[in-house]
Amino acid sequence: MTLEQYNQLPYDYAHCAGTHCEKASQCLRHTAYTMLETGGREQYMMMNSNVIADTQPCPFFDPNRKELFAWGISRIYDNVRVAI
Q: Domain range holding 24?
């Protein structure tokens, strides 16, 4: 994650210091935690890693990669003809 990408995260985005998690290297919350030194934020929100230590899979896991979603179906029926 670059510094520019880190600065695009919302200020209320929760960071996670859970290094014990098996998906820590793939989690955006943990990657955001590793960016705290260079990020320059005065305040940030943290996850309580003791609460989520026993729950697998983690309910707060956020993938550290971009996902492609299909948006724009609002005009899907524009060319459908109506039979009267």
A: 1-84
**Amino acid letter for position 77:** Y
**Contact, 12 vs 45, CB < 8 A?**
yes
Question: CA 58: distance to chain centroid?
Answer: 13
- pTM listed for this prediction: 0.70
Q: Is 31 within 8 Å of 2 (Cβ atoms)?
A: no
- Please count the structural domains in the chain: 1
pLDDT digits (tens, 9 = 90+) for 4-62: 888 888 889 999 988 788 888 889 999 999 988 887 888 889 988 777 766 677 888 88
